[in-house]
Amino acid sequence: MIDAQTLTPAELNQLGLVIAERLAKQPLLVDSVDLAPLLSVSVETVKRYTAKGQIPCVRIGRRVLYQPEAVIDALAQASSNERGDADE
After folding, report:
1. How far apart, in whole angstroms, are the C-alpha atoms of residue 86 and residue 26?
2. Which of 29, 61, 84, 18 is nearest to 10 (CA)?
3. In Å, what is the CA distance from 28 to each residue of 17, 31, 72, 83, 88?
4. Where are the beta strands (DSSP E) in 6-71?
5. Max Cα separation, the chain?
6. Is the pTM of this model over 0.70?
7. What is residue 43's predicted lDDT score, i.e. its pLDDT?
8. Adjacent-strand bridge partners of 58
9. What crossing angle do the helices spanning 32-39 and 43-51 adopt, rounded to 10°?
10. How far apart are CA 80 and CA 66, in angstroms?
């Protein structure tokens, strides 16, 4: 355990930067209300895509959460697959 009282201001600043960097690397999880505007769709559309398995989600108890980057990647992949199928 680190005793914050024994750290210099420079060490505290460095520790803060390390913590901030680690937190920034953590995946952000949002609910359907927060995801919908990111995708420019309604909450109902997010729920429909979830029910159909078209977008990935994380279930924690009764909560359904989404990692926006993973959802966007899944939708982009599905879109490119559809375009690829149409060309054949």
Report:
1. 37
2. 18
3. 19, 10, 13, 29, 37
4. 58-60, 63-65
5. 67
6. no
7. 98
8. 65
9. 100
10. 21
The closest of 48, 49, 55 to 70, measured between CA atoms, is: 55
**Other CB atoms within 10 A of residue 46 CB:** 24
What is the C-alpha separation between 52 and 8, in angstroms, rounded?
54
Mean pLDDT along residues 9-25:
82
* Per-residue pLDDT tens over the stretch 43-72: 999 999 999 999 999 999 999 999 998 999
Burial of residue 55 (number of CB atoms within 10 Å: 0-12, 13-18, 19+)? buried
Q: What percent of the chain has pLDDT over 70?
A: 85
Strands (E), 1-88: 58-60, 63-65
Distance CA(88)–CA(83), nearest Å, equals 9
Mean model confidence pLDDT for the chain? 86
